[in-house]
Amino acid sequence: MGIQMGRFKVMQKTSQASDVVTLKLEPIDPFNLDFKPGQFVNLYIQREGETLLARPYSIASSPTNQKYLELTIKIIEGGRFTPRVASLKEGDIVKVGGPFGKFFFLDEEKMKDVVLIGGGCGITPFISIIRYVADRNLDTNITYFYSARTMGTILYKDELESIAEKHPNIKLVFTCTRENSSEWKGEKGRISADMIRKYTDVNNPDKYYMLCGPPEMIKALVEALKGIGIAEDRILHESWSA
To answer: What is the pTM of this model?
Structure first.
């Protein structure tokens, strides 16, 4: 499977939150939609009279979905690129190049027990992985730690809970850092070594840990995991920033 470039049509655009947009992109040109769950593509958008711009985004859809690519993107106020994403309409044409990512993806042959850690739009490679494991009925054990500000900002929450209900090998741990409602029954605060210990067997040497989020968060979590004895070659991480 090589690197490709092709035109895609925006077949659907939805708002996941006030500042988060999900695009479903249907290929116009021949484009092989086989990729590894966790990989990313470059999205190219050109507006009339302006230069072509591109940004990398993890694929949210599963490789089992051969109809479209799904990207979930946080809109950054004052940004150069994401306002172009916000202004897209259904039927608009964009370009996509990829897939990319040699190290950060689910290797289903060797990764039978995986801890996923992230939040916000860091969910995108993980929802792809979870959808793939569920669609293929793989026996991969997954524990997903998802951190959000409030329960209303958890992306894909209903779908994640529906998948976990049907697949006992997929477990979810939601935590909120700014949620004060008595309705919230999940964890509170940032993801920590103690929280990871509470829900996973950190002494299991066969586990892999995949982290996705802002650089500061990733740096702190890598150090926390190494501090509780997780081998560095078992920690895969990908960071992004506005």
So the answer is: 0.95
